[in-house]
Fold:
Amino acid sequence: STQRPRPRVLLKAPTLAEMDEMNISEEEESP
Amino acid sequence: RPVNIPRKEKDFQGMLEYKKDDELKLIKNLILELKPRGVAVNLIPGLPAYILFMCVRHADYINDDQRVRSLLTSTINGIKKILKKRSDDFEIVSFWLSNTCRFLHCLKQYSGEEAFMKHNTPRQNDHCLRNFDLAEYRQVISDLAIQIYQQLTKVMENVLQPMIVSGMLEHETIQGVSGLKPTGLRKRTSSVADEGTYTLDSIVRQLNNFHSTMCQHGMDPELIKQIVKQMFYIIGSVTLNNLLLRKDMCSWSKGMQIRYNVSQLEEWLRDKNLQTSGAKETLEPLIQAAQLLQVKKKTDEDAEAICSMCSALTTAQIVKVLNLYTPVNEFEERVTASFIRTIQVRLQNRKDSPQLLMDAKHIFPVTFPFNPSSLALESIQIPSSMNLGFLLRV
Structure:
């Protein structure tokens, strides 16, 4: 019999545009 | 002193362990400072993607969601950063498009979702992610791949743009045709291109260069087909648009030269086994315009033949070519106004766009068909030249 995989936890991800925004604000913060 | 006993592949589980603090170093050495021409990287196409995935697997294995998130975010940002820095470098953009796609395929192949496991070996199935469903990150990485594809298209366009008019329209290679200039436009004939002039050979060499680079990077064959189709569309649309704007390009002999050039491009497609890419079809408007320059344009029968032949040209384009058509010699007549009117009447039921020029900036929608790999993760070794000695094979 095939072993049923364990349920995995869905990792929520920001969109590419949201990642861009986060990245820009991080760059602005760093000197 | 510890004795270094080489471990057998079967002892490895195809994961790479790293210290949390080494994540920045990983991105720096593997993404930001990696040279695609390095021997190591060419040994296994997609090696950076496999390394990143093996790191993701370990973070998943130890059930550390923060680490998985952090690594995926840093990877995506690292790829975006290098592509911003080297935005017009075909080699870099092609390399990261290939690797981003391979990373995406790995995330699917080892997702544990049955649809993506069909071609896996039992060992590969053992290597599926245990704790996390990364479907949302796959979407982000797929979006990133689309962005990189669009950037690659722009880079190709910038490289090809200065070659197209010269190589496809102006430069003449067919012996005996060069002398047949439209009346009043005769010029010195020369079989050798002037220095700095692009020829069809320059275009073909450039296509070879793009193609071999993509193959070296292990780009998915289906993706190469889409890129080649996009390249051919750029060549065809820029050539046709210039033909439609230049009277000196609308002659019987130019029609002959264009058909010859197109046949060389088609031969290139056959040579690279890319006939099913749809690239040839993108040249259809140009092929028909070249035929239009060569057919008889006098009788009602000629008009009927032209209307059925020029299905890929708009009425505006057909009429423009006929208006611009310049006889090769004094024995040939210009296209009469009544003939052009006949054509217009015949085509008035066509519901085509009134636009004269093709949209040379059009980008076809891209897809990344799933392409699983037979490579066994546990067999992957990282060459020391990659400066990733801080990664521990697990």
The two ends of chain B are 22 Å apart (CA to CA). The beta strands of chain B are 16-17, 132-133, 392-393. The interface with chain A takes residues 65, 68-69, 72-73, 76-77, 80, 112, 128-137, 139-140, 143-144, 147 of chain B (CB under 8 Å).
